[in-house]
Amino acid sequence: MLRVEKLTVGVANETILRDISLEIPKGEVHILFGPNGSGKTTLVKTILGLSGYKVISGRILFLGKDITNLSTNERVRLGIGAAFQRPPEVRGVKLKDLLRLTARNDLEEIINDLKVDRNLLNREVNVKFSGGEIKKSELLQVFAQNPKFIILDEPDSGVDLENLNVVGRFLAKHLTNKSALIITHIGYILKFVRAKKAYVLYKGRIAMEGDPGRIYEKIKREGYAFALD
Amino acid sequence: MRWIEKCKEKARRAVNKPPVYGHDIDIGLYDISLELREGKKELFPGAEKRFAGSYVQIDHSVIVEEVSKQYKGEIEIMRIEDALEAYDWLEDYWWKAVKVDTDKFTALAELKLHGGYFIRILPGKKVELPIHACMLIYHDRTLQNVHNIVIAEPNSEAHIISGCAIRPISRGLHVGITEFYIKKGAKLVYTMIHNWSEDTHVRPRSAAILEKNSTFINNYINLRSVGSIQAYPSFVCQEDNSRVSVNSIVFGDKDSIIDLGAEIVLKGLKSRGEIISRAVAMDNAQIVMRGRIVGESNESKGHYECRGLLLSDTAMIHSIPELIGRRQGSELSHEAAIGKISRDEIEYLMSRGLEERDAVSLIVKGFLDIELMNLPEQLANRIKVLVDMTTEKAI
Q1: Which side of chain B, N or C, has fewer Cβ within a 10 Å radius?
Q2: Do B356 and A73 touch (CB under 8 A)?
Q3: Class of the A2-228 domain?
Q4: Tens digit of pLDDT for each residue in B136-177?
Q5: How much is the ipTM here?
Q6: Closest Cα partner for A136 from A100, A87, A92?
Q7: Contacts A89 to B, Cβ<8 Å
Q8: For residue B344, which residues of chain A lie inside 8 Å, CB to CB?
Q9: Does the CB of A87 have a partner CB in chain B at under 8 Å?
């Protein structure tokens, strides 16, 4: 479904990602591990085609089509959706008004499963949202879009334990049979989500790939330092 | 009528007095000898249900002045000249909030009066439906000098929605004097929507005087290109516990020159004043937003907030906040910010599938937030549609 081929990416004249290759087939969930600053979010934003993320070499294929030079909304229209880790505040735009323009799925089930406080819908998007509110709002938005391929950037960081369980159970249910790439540095989400494959991103390169459970255990035991080898 | 002669005499001395703000206008360019059209027309269908009363003036002719059936005895609406005939006591309100010799425009309005409305909400009456007032310019090169007086009698409540517009192909000069008197315990919401053309110049001269425990919410919305607008209305919280909030949403495009201010004078003990402004400037629009709050009483509070969104490098927004404290117990503050829409926000919305243009339009619509205006829901919805249409057309 999504294929990244030998991707090298620069941000403001600095190379952040080098020679990244990964492939997520239809119906599989893959995990991208990596410490802070390893380039995980850069990869998400490059896949989405946001400005400032320059593809130096390599390409991105989605459903067999080269999307490397498409605009963000064209990629989204093809079926890519993302939940961001730190989305910007959009003053004056209420969450419900944005959803009215973007939602293709029934919101009720998502709202209930995520236990979204309905007041959140009447607030300006991301303005003074707490960590938990951001996660819920991002997940609500991306699942409401009903994309063919879902990218989740750190759905399990900066959330209290109670909300973490809500988010985990939500993803367990809603990611079934879906194609997704989940970015995480702490890995809690693995308790809830069945993933087929994992990668470790370290200093801008894929340092390791393999079974998610085994890699997670290794990270817990040794920290990310093993990736230095 | 000695007093009115005195007014005219003062006005005559000010006919050449240039305005303090905004560029001067050659009044001679505008034709003032227009034929008056005769005869009143019926209210448009459904007006009785939507409005408590209506006043519609086209050029110099009053087309509608009517109080809806169920509000007879609660409000009075008439052409200002008729009110001057009917009420001797209007002397106490005539040029008592605005000075007749402020500048050549006030002088002109006194010397060549072309109508205007007198709206009075009677004591203790709570009028749920809005009162509708409308000033239109139809003929090319019309000079429209109107003098409006609005009196909210003690403990009354009402909402006036006022629209001013011009036939798009016409040029015009609109001079609108509006004097508001908000009596003890009264509450008035006044919402003015301007819809002019690129060849219209607008010089409103307004002021309000608030008595004890009264509230005045003054909303201003400008949605279309205009030749120039210059206004600096004054709101005087004369007595204790009076509250005024002045909100404006200004959208400037093409070569519009807009210089809008609001002055609040806090004289009454515990009086409160707030000015909130939002300005969007596109193309070559030049927008000056002035806010001045004068604290003359103890335990008074004033706040000015101005936010500007610049959508072009040939446009300009100039925010001028002024706070003048004259009592130690008066708390005054201001905040202002001018900027562009951040790329991050646009791309975030694009990552939800919106086209870039739609993303910008959504953010601008959100910025021009009419919720700050405290409007009744129906009216808010209607105005929101107008704001949305303007934004979509412009972007």
Answers
A1: N
A2: yes
A3: alpha beta
A4: 888 888 888 999 999 999 999 999 999 888 888 888 899 999
A5: 0.95
A6: A87
A7: 345
A8: 88
A9: yes
